[in-house]
Each structure stands twice: as C-alpha cells, then as structure tokens.
Amino acid sequence: MIKRWTALILLLFLYVGAAIADDREVLKVVESSARIWLALIDEAKYQESWEKASVLFRTKQNEAEWVKAITASRSARGTATARYIATAGAAKSLSGFPDGEYVVLQFYVTFEHKGLALETITLAKIQDSSWWVADYSIK
User: Who is most buried in 1, 84, 89, 110, counting CB within 10 A?
Assistant: First the structure.
C-alpha cells in the first residue's frame, strides 16, 4: 500500500513538473512574440506593427486609426530605454474577443521624456500555434 502511494505521489510530482515546464516554454514563446512586435513600435514602424498584428487587432481599428493613435501616444514619450515584464496571465475568454487561447502580458517601460509607463499587450494563439498581438494599450 505504501509503495502504491509513493508511486502515485511520484507520478503526481512528475506531472506537475512537466506542466510547469510547459507553461514556462509557452511564456518564453509568447514573451518573444510580444517583444518582437513591440520592437516595431519602438522603431516607429507603426504601419508594419498593424500589419504584423492578428486579425482580431486589425478588425478593432483600421490602419490609419492605429497609426494616428500610436503616433500621438508614443511621440511625446520619446525613446523607450528599458522594458521589464511585470505580469503574465492566461485566459480562455476575454471581454471583446471570441473564446480562444490568450496571454495578457504587462510590461513596465521607461521612456526618455515621460518616465515610467505600463504597457498591456494581449496575444492570441492562432491556428498554426503561433502567438499574434490581439490588443495593446499604454498608460
């Protein structure tokens, strides 16, 4: 009986360990996708950032609206000097989006002129298992 419980507990630890490892890998991929997209914003490649975002993002606002809004928001702040991940959370359902797989990341960002800001970027998993930006805000 003790051997069975020991084996069961060992299997449980192995399963939990594997799940945590999988979550870390997903977070690495998602964070990498987010940072690649944010680099476009940092380089003032606003049109390209719209083009490289998900269909969900592009249907919420057209390209001209996006470029106008992000230009106004980012130009006054100056150059981004550092970006640190603050939080990450996964969701299957988010307000304003169809059910799916999402990860919401928040970054603290320091800027040349306006100091500290909080960026929130939502990424959606699409059919080929890649992660694309579905939403972005900065405060």
Answer: 110
One digit per residue, pLDDT tens: the chain, 139 residues?
Answer: 555 544 444 443 434 343 344 668 888 999 999 999 999 999 999 999 999 999 999 999 999 999 999 999 998 899 999 999 999 999 999 988 999 999 999 999 999 988 899 999 999 998 778 999 999 999 9
71 contacts: CB under 8 Å, gap ≥ 6: 44, 46
Q: Which domains does the chain have, with CATH numbers?
A: 2-138 (3.10.450.100)
Q: Kindly report the pTM of this predicted structure.
A: 0.80
Say which residue the tokens 């001209």 belong to. 64
